[in-house]
Design goal:
The structure holds two protein chains of two kinds.
Chain A (H helix, E strand, L loop, with lengths): L5 H18 L6 H16 L6 H18 L7 H33 L14 H17 L7 H9 L1 H4 L7 H9 L8 H37 L6 H32 L17 H7 L2 H12 L9 H19 L3 H24 L10 H23 L3 H11 L11 H6 L3 H14 L3 H4 L18 H9 L5 H16 L13
Chain B lengths: L1 H29 L8 H4 L11 H10 L4 E4 L2 H6 L5 H4 L4 E3 L7 H13 L7 E5 L28 H10 L1 H15 L5 H9 L14 H5 L17 H18 L3 E6 L4 H9 L3 H19 L9 E4 L31 H11 L11 E3 L4 H18 L1 H9 L6
Parallel strand pairs in B: 1-2, 1-3, 3-4, 4-5
Antiparallel strand pairs in B: 5-6
The chains are: A mainly alpha, B alpha/beta.
């Protein structure tokens, strides 16, 4: 089921919320939590019930293993952990990566290994890695309470199930266990609905609105059509914006939905295109994935504890695997590698010159210079993320950077299709670069876990955020109600979230 | 604070409810896709622009009782006049063609027609391009296929909500209201209500530019240029076989038309190496028709008419960059005008005053001779129209 569908908004969500509000009045919180688990399984099963059994098996297996790992007196804990992690990796490896490895092996060795068509279960990367993290923490002794209903809800809670944020058990288990949490109230419903509205608007109006421009250009590159620099840049920037509004819209909706049920989820986006360098970018983009990669990959690999060279190697390895996490294809590996390279360059610069080229708090022009350079680098890397294969990506990048032989004359028909693109892109750039983000707009009411934002009254950004910040006023209710209806009316066709594929 | 939050929630939900209900009510009253057919929406019928939409066409196919049906893609939609006497003599006529339709969609359209109790069309004219054998386009990718009754997996809740709430429906509702207030009936809609057919918009008759003519020529990288064996061919054959048999079982006379595309378009396909594929497509149609005709002797035989040609009207001088007058027979290289559509109907129904230079009824006995004659005609055409051949070789022009 998609958040941006009538069945979800007008059917599933009201029913789920109404039943939950009834169950929340009971003295025992068990029925409330079980209802959320059942709703989440229905939500997951809606599109393809065949994959639900796999999902449930994965939860059951990891729950049983974790039950053993949380007991310090159990024997063979490390061996059990190792086997369980391998089992999880084999699980995701079969469904997500077997085809990729087979085709790569066929290419390299000239073999003809055919694995057939394997259906990718929705959200497999998210729920598998979330559970691996839980197992590791259970082994480390960091899991204090291991209950079936809490565990099931931690993995399956529908707002974050399919495309994140990747929830750490520390973030939510305490909320599930709290005796004072579950009282559906006007504050949570008002804040949750507002955040959901902003996310929905971002997805169906902004992301889906700009998506056709990216599709036209990438389609042209795929089909061998002629490209020139301006067309290629339009396609690449349009995709950057589409991806941002799509994924951050989904995250806003997830946070808003969680809040509707009185559960706060962690922040996942913090205006990433306002980042002034690539290190800053990764602190703002898909924050929960960055945290996961740092805690469960980069630091176990050694982090920055074994010298500069090892640190850079660890960074590269982390980003390459991070790329592979996003998708089974060489384009994703290259995308991860490019980001690893950018990070190494960024850290290298900092260590050589002992100063950051661009960081917040420096002169305004340097901040903007940093923002533009970072945006250009990130946009160039997204080309690999979006392209079907490296040939298409290189063709588009060649046109973007004016490589010899890539400049071409473009037909009037193509220009007509892209006529509105510059205006749309400019409007979206104003939103991402100048306006406060969802968390900042909702900063007064702590919209996400461990997040609080107090705009300053000195900078123009702070003053603007102060002006636009959400308040529970009638005018705001009418404004966000209008936004919701506009978004509701924009469901012209089924449009999945990009991160559903990962 | 708590009181303000409650007031906020109340206002938020009231705003959402009131605005959504207003939009839905407005769209239901005007009914831009003609889905609900109530008395209020009837006042707007001749002002509705979207009666050519798949949603509308599929609704009409499900509801209406017609004696003659035209099905196919935009060529049939724009090029055939439902008021042509050859058709109207059989009774009421409706043109159910939709732009960029696939064989699958046409078969779904026939399903909807035959599922209606009492529906017994006596004549069906179906435009099929021989390119179908090289098409790999899935009908499910069509922009409005998913939301129409043509989609067998249609979610009826979403179907009604989309057509009551979406911006597309609302936009057309507002246009309809505006035209109603200004008393400007839509050209397409007014023709549809009077004759039950589709007529190309008046503006189309003014089309003259070279850019318009060439924009439909398949590019070297388009799906039409794929030379690999197409798995869709077997599926298309089976769909056609089922449709042919169904028409005969229901006693409907079926005439298949291979539309008269401009010779430049045909030559372009040949230049892309698709000549053999097109011939294969024609042979396939003939063999399918022969196979089906042999099963039920009492039903009217299926006729295959080939109007794709390198002779006659399809060789009309095309619009160049300096042309000032519209082409007589064509809107562009793919779409022909009603004048040419009428010629083909005249010939199919024996109403032609003189024997035209193009158009042949294909049978098992003459198909090979016809294909040889087409090849000869192409050779002559290539010699006489070197500018056409040059354009076909170069393909769509890039100018910027």
């Amino acid at each position: 089921m998609l958040f941006n569908s009538y069945i979800f908004i007008l059917g599933f969500l009201p029913v789920c919320l109404l039943v939950a509000s009834g169950l929340a009045r009971l003295p025992n919180r068990g029925p409330y939590l079980w209802w959320l688990v059942i709703s989440s399984v229905i939500f997951y099963s809606w599109q393809d019930i065949r994959l639900t059994s796999l999902f449930l098996v994965s939860i059951a297996f990891n729950y049983v293993v974790a039950a053993r790992l949380v007991r310090p007196e159990s024997g063979y804990r490390f061996q059990i952990l190792t086997l369980a992690v391998i089992a999880n990796l084999l699980f995701i490896g079969y469904f997500k990566y077997l085809g990729f490895f087979a085709s790569s092996a066929n290419l390299a060795l000239g073999t003809h290994w055919d694995v057939g068509k394997i259906v990718l279960p929705l959200g497999i990367s998210f729920y598998t890695f979330q559970q691996i993290a839980y197992l590791v923490d259970a082994w480390r002794g960091e899991v204090t309470e291991h209950k079936l209903v809490n565990y099931c809800l931690f993995v399956a809670f529908f707002p974050q199930l399919i495309a994140g944020p990747i929830v750490h058990h520390r973030d939510v288990l305490a909320q599930f266990s709290s005796r004072t949490r579950f009282r559906l109230n006007a504050a949570d419903i008002g804040v949750g609905m507002t955040m959901f509205t902003i996310g929905l608007f971002k997805k169906v109006v902004l992301a889906d609105g700009i998506a056709p421009f990216a599709s036209i250009v990438f389609g042209l590159a795929r089909d061998g059509g002629e490209l020139n620099g301006s067309v290629a840049w339009i396609g690449a920037v349009a995709y950057s914006l589409q991806l941002y509004f799509d994924f951050s819209g989904y995250s806003d909706m997830a946070l808003g939905l969680g809040r509707l049920f009185s559960i706060r989820l962690p922040i996942n986006f913090d205006s990433p295109y306002k980042a002034v360098n690539i290190v800053d970018f990764w602190r703002r983009w898909h924050i929960t994935l960055s945290d996961f990669l740092r805690d469960y990959l980069y630091i176990p690999l050694g982090g920055n504890r074994h010298g500069t060279a090892r640190r850079y190697a660890n960074l590269m390895a982390t980003m390459l695997l991070g790329g592979l996490w996003h998708g089974a294809g060489w384009t994703f590996v290259i995308w991860g590698g490019l980001h690893g390279l950018f990070l190494v360059m960024n850290h290298g610069w900092d260590s050589i010159f002992k100063t950051r080229l661009c960081s917040t708090g420096v002169a305004n022009w340097r901040v903007w210079f940093g923002r533009v350079v970072t945006f250009v680098a990130v946009t160039s890397a997204w080309v690999f993320f979006r392209a079907e294969n490296t040939t298409v990506a290189l063709k588009l990048l060649g046109a973007m950077y004016g490589f010899p032989g890539t400049s071409a004359e473009i037909s009037d028909a193509l220009w007509n299709k892209l006529r509105d693109a510059p205006g749309c892109i400019a409007a979206c750039m104003v939103i991402v670069w100048l306006l406060p983000n969802t968390q900042q707009l909702m900063g007064r009411v702590r919209p996400a876990l461990r997040y609080r934002y107090r705009p300053d009254s000195v900078s123009w950004e702070g003053r603007l955020a102060r002006l636009l910040q959400w308040r529970p006023a009638s005018a705001a209710a009418v404004w966000y109600g209008g936004m919701f209806v506009v978004a509701l009316c924009s469901f012209s066709r089924v449009s999945e979230f990009i991160y559903f594929n990962f | 604070m708590r009181r303000r939050l409650r007031a906020y929630c109340r206002t938020l939900f009231l705003t959402i409810g009131a605005m959504a209900a207003s939009v839905a009510l407005l769209n239901w009253l005007v009914d831009p896709y003609d889905m609900y057919c109530h008395s209020v929406s009837g006042h707007f019928r001749s002002y509705k622009r979207r009666l050519i939409h798949r949603v509308s066409k599929a609704e009409i196919a499900r509801r209406g009782l017609y004696d003659v049906l035209l099905i196919g893609d935009s060529r049939i939609a724009a090029g055939y006049d439902a008021d042509h006497p050859a058709l109207t003599r059989f009774g009421s006529v409706y043109n159910l063609s939709v732009a960029a339709s696939s064989i699958y969609e046409c078969s779904r359209m026939l399903d909807l027609v035959f599922e209606k109790p009492g529906s017994k069309p006596g004549l069906i004219v179906w435009g099929i391009s021989p390119e179908f054998v090289v098409r790999d386009r899935s009908p499910r990718t069509e922009f409005d296929f998913d939301a129409s009754l043509l989609n067998p997996r249609l979610n009826y809740g979403e179907y009604h909500l989309r057509n009551l709430l979406t911006l597309d429906a609302t936009r057309h509702t507002l246009w309809t209201i505006r035209d109603r207030l200004m008393s400007q009936p839509d050209v397409i809609a007014s023709t549809q209500t009077s004759s039950g057919g589709f007529t190309s918009p008046a503006a189309a008759s003014e089309l003259v530019s070279h850019e318009t003519f060439v924009h439909v020529l398949p590019a070297r990288h388009s799906y039409l240029a794929e030379h690999e064996p197409m798995p869709a061919v077997a599926e298309a054959e089976q769909l056609l076989r089922n449709c042919f048999n169904r028409c005969r079982e229901r006693g409907a006379e079926l005439k298949i038309v291979i539309p008269p595309v401009h010779a430049v378009y045909l030559e372009r396909l040949h230049q892309l190496g698709l000549g053999e594929r097109i011939e294969f497509g024609k042979r396939t149609l003939v063999s399918l028709a022969t196979e089906c005709n042999s099963t039920t002797a009492s039903a009217p035989p299926i006729e295959i008419w080939d109007f794709s040609s390198f002779r006659g009207p399809p060789t009309e001088a095309y619009a160049t960059t300096t042309t000032t007058a519209p082409m007589h027979w064509y809107q562009d290289a793919l779409h022909f005008r009603e004048a040419l559509g009428n010629l083909t109907l005249d010939q199919m129904f024996g109403m032609a005053n003189e024997v035209p230079e193009f158009g042949t009824r294909l049978t098992e006995s003459n198909v090979e001779v016809h294909l040889i004659s087409q090849r000869t005609a192409r050779n002559v055409y290539q010699r006489k129209h070197t500018d056409h051949v040059q354009l076909a070789i170069e393909g769509p022009v890039t100018r910027r």
